[in-house]
Amino acid sequence: MKRYGFHLAFVSLLLLSLFIFFSDLSGSPLLDRIKEVSYRAVLPVINLKEAIFNYVEENMSKYVLLVNLKEENSRLLKELEMCKVNEVELSTYRRVLRRLGQELKLDGFKSLGGVVFSRVVYYDPTGLDAFVIISAGRQSGVSRGDIVLSRGEVIGTVKEAYTATSKVITTLNGELNLSVLLESSGKAYIYRGGYPLGELLYVNKKDSISVGDKILYRDPEGRLPNFIVGYVDRIEKGESPFFRKVFVKPAADPRRSEMVIVLAERKAR
Predict the structure, then answer these.
(1) What is the pLDDT of residues 127-152, one digit of tens each?
(2) Domain ranges of the chain
(3) I need a labelling partner for 43 at 20 to 30 A (CA). Which of 28, 181, 191, 258 fits?
(4) Is 0.70 surpassed by the pTM of this model?
(5) 7-45 burial string, b = 16+ CB within 10 Å, else e?
(6) Measured in whole angstroms, how far is the alpha carbon of residue 119 from the centre of its chain?
(7) Which H helix or E strand runs over 122?
(8) Which residue has the higher pLDDT, 76 or 124?
């Protein structure tokens, strides 16, 4: 029954449409009035729909913006936490370097470049401490003739620089010759290594020198500070009538040196 009613209503609307079309009621004032009344009745609904659409669109934009801001804030918060961690690590590294600098007495050459930190990996097995092997070589910028320090004292010079290691002859080695200064007078001499004592060469009998005087390294290029080489241990009459024999106790003890500093690239380029 409902099915027949639907068909009847459809047929009625079709007949009404045909009647309006053929009777030319589309231009009728009555129909225009009906259209106007219908439009006025529907206009608030249209306006409400548009207002709802604008409201939803605006709030959706705000929501998306807030979501993006939340994500950005979360990212910035993570970066801030990471920066705090990095700052703590940096402070730790600075404290470690400060302690290391105090231990190795680096204050005298903070401005120098080419400083290489290394460890002693092998000692002279003869017991004469004539050389040590360190864990830095050409790959680290170490080269023959570089000065090697331990706790601010000259331990020796690089004799051979290999790829990853180097051989250092110490101040106890007879092959070592250094240009040095007598701190008390500022006069220059040559220090020759030796075990257990080194020696100052060509010390004139008229030179003022005493037991305990400090012997300092003298850089021929004038770039390095005067690091300690040793102390005058004893003075004897020399074989020559013009010179005295001056023996020097080296300041650095290779056996007590686990970490050393190589002043690499000290030569003029």
Answers:
(1) 999 999 999 999 989 999 999 998 88
(2) 115-263
(3) 28
(4) no
(5) eeeeeeeeeeeeeeeeeeeeeeeeeeeeeeeeeeeeeee
(6) 21
(7) strand 115-123
(8) 124
